[in-house]
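Q: I'm building a small set of examples for a reading group on sequence design. Run inverse folding on the following structure and report the sequence directly after it, with nothing in between.
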């Protein structure tokens, strides 16, 4: 089971690489390169081996011709050699070059051998012939493997009265194949190293070619990442003719998405104005005619306003998520909110302290950040005695944390849950719809964030908002 699990893990690890376009191109080129080099090396090796063997046979043929030329018949048809005309290697023992003369008829002188054979003779097996020459192989002295060339020669017998009397001999020359095999082995070794280096160079060149060839696709990926992080609005730069249509289509798709979301948000805004005006009229009429019915109308109108604000905020935030490239500087947005809320709560003398470094970005629209942060800060100002502390800092994993604390009465743990889950108003004496925290949590969840409530070191409520950021 453990082995099967490891195999599945290894397969899952390698699968994305095998699906890579670069890996496929490199693998295909690698296979063809290896096959081509192996076949080419084999052909060259066989050609060189054949050339060396032919050259060796030619040398043996020259020595055989010299042996025959050095042979002279005596009156009895016996062979007499002029040693001075022969290759000097025939005189050195076991030199690797040998000759042998064998009579085909019995009688007369026996087998003659070169000094290099000492007391040995050569017995060879014929493997082919060409004209008067026969060739084959034989075992030589000291386990040598010999290449043998032999030729049939007839010498006339001058001492007889018959003119057609002659004696037949086989002239044989043999050479050690060790030198031939050594040359072939040296060539094959050089060939292997040369083709190995050539193959490594070709593979490196193929790798560079694939990497350079796919570089425009990497630029497209990086451009899309910049758009996703809000650092760009379009695919920028020049692309090759094969990639340019893709880049153009992506830019058109992004633009179309922005236009669709823009129209949807316009419709949402129009719907908000359309609904709020009748609700304001109903509220005004109910206040002008007090009574049980008017109180019921006012409660329902207030509930409708809260629900409209709640779902319009969610709809606006959900639409913003479909637009690529949104990013917002956190510090300027918090500065504007703090300045406005200080004026709103100026009569109570609320001190809003802000701690946020420059260069911190929220990956989303400024309007949504202001909606969430504004609700949290405004809620803290409503309940604070004198002080509200706001801080924002970056976290690992491209996240940011926004914290809002106040020195008010705070909330009990069970009340915090009720406020977040149902958006209940716990104190009707404080103005507002009671949906601020619930709206903040809904918008945060749409961005993959979260809202948590706890106790503040200042004595009141602490709201912590986790949101996506740009690293």
């Amino acid at each position: 089971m453990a082995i099967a699990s490891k195999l599945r893990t290894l397969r899952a690890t390698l699968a994305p690489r095998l699906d890579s376009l670069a890996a496929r191109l490199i693998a295909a080129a690698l296979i063809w390169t290896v096959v081509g080099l192996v076949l080419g090396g084999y052909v060259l090796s066989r050609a060189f081996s054949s050339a060396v063997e032919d050259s060796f046979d030619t040398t043996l043929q020259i020595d055989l011709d010299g042996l025959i030329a050095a042979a002279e018949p005596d009156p009895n048809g016996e062979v007499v050699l002029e040693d001075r005309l022969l290759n000097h290697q025939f005189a050195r023992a076991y030199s690797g070059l040998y000759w042998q003369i064998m009579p085909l008829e019995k009688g007369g002188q026996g087998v003659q051998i070169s000094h290099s054979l000492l007391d040995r003779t050569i017995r060879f097996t014929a493997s082919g012939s060409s004209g008067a020459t026969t060739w084959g192989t034989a075992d030589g002295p000291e386990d040598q493997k010999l290449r043998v060339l032999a030729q049939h020669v007839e010498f006339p017998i001058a001492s007889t009265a018959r003119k057609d009397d002659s004696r037949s001999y086989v002239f044989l020359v043999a050479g050690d194949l060790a030198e031939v095999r050594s040359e072939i082995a040296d060539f094959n070794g050089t060939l292997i190293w040369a083709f190995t280096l050539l193959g490594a160079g070709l593979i490196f060149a193929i790798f560079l070619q694939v990497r350079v060839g796919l570089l425009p696709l990497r630029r497209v990926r990086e451009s899309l990442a910049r758009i996703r992080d809000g650092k760009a609005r379009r695919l920028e730069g020049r692309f090759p003719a094969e990639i340019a249509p893709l880049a153009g289509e992506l830019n058109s798709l992004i633009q179309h998405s922005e236009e669709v979301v823009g129209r949807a948000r316009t419709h949402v805004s129009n719907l908000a104005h359309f609904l709020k005006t009748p609700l304001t009229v109903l509220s005004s009429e109910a206040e002008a005619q007090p009574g049980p019915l008017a109180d019921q109308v006012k409660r329902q109108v207030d509930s409708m306003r809260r629900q409209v604000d709640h779902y319009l905020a969610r709809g606006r935030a959900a639409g913003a998520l479909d637009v690529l490239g949104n990013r917002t500087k956190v510090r300027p947005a918090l500065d504007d909110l703090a300045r406005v809320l200080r004026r709103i709560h100026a009569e109570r003398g609320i001190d809003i302290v802000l701690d946020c470094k420059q260069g911190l970005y929220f990956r989303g629209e400024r309007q949504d950040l202001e909606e969430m942060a504004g609700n949290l800060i405004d809620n803290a100002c409503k309940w604070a005695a004198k002080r509200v502390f706001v801080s924002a800092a970056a976290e690992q994993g491209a996240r940011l944390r926004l914290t809002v604390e106040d020195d008010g009465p705070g909330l009990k743990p069970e009340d915090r849950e009720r406020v977040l889950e149902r958006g209940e108003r716990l104190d009707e004496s404080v103005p507002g719809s009671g949906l601020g925290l619930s709206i903040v949590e809904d918008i945060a969840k749409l961005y993959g964030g979260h809202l948590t409530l706890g106790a503040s070191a200042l004595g009141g409520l602490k709201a912590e908002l986790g949101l996506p950021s740009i690293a």
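Confidence is low (pLDDT under 50) at residues 12-16, 422-434.
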